[in-house]
Amino acid sequence: MIAHNKGHIVAVGSVLGLMGLNGAADYCGSKFATDGFMDALRDELKSEGVSGVTATTIYPYHVDNDMFAGAATRFPKLFPAINEDYLSQKIVDAVLSGRERMIVPKLLYLSALFYRIAPVPAITAVMKFIGGHQVIENMKERGHSNTCRG
């Protein structure tokens, strides 16, 4: 790609690569690593003058599949699981438009911003209010333990 100065690298991370979640430290850590890797790669490409290779990171909320089966917040209509076909189309849209980052759904851009600027006690209070602190426990209670701590 570098030799031809043409190409596109896509990494599917997670919104949990932008904010932590109780019970998912291992998963969040791997997604934070993806975010850092893609940021560094993007910077390296630009500093080497490689303008034709784009690095895109996708940050989806939980996808409606077996991995996060049973995951739900206190407000599932406000934070519904993402359909795989919808996410796939969003990834294609990001590639075709040359976007470097995309959070899906858009509502979570506000969450990511809040997580970066709010004091920790405020984040903790909001996570408790929306039920975010119990998502992983809810999955275990529903018999879905194939993520994080298995």
TrEMBL record:
N-terminal signal peptide: 1-24
A UniProt-annotated Pfam family: adh_short
The keyword Signal appears for this protein: yes
SUPFAM superfamilies cross-referenced by the UniProt entry: NAD(P)-binding Rossmann-fold domains
Protein keywords: Oxidoreductase, Signal
Organism domain of life: Eukaryota
Keyword Signal: yes
InterPro entries the UniProt entry points to: NAD(P)-bd_dom_sf (IPR036291), Sc_DH/Rdtase_CS (IPR020904), SDR_fam (IPR002347)
GO molecular function, one term: oxidoreductase activity, acting on the CH-OH group of donors, NAD or NADP as acceptor
Family: Belongs to the short-chain dehydrogenases/reductases (SDR) family.
Stated name of the protein: Uncharacterized protein
Native source organism of the sequence: Candidula unifasciata
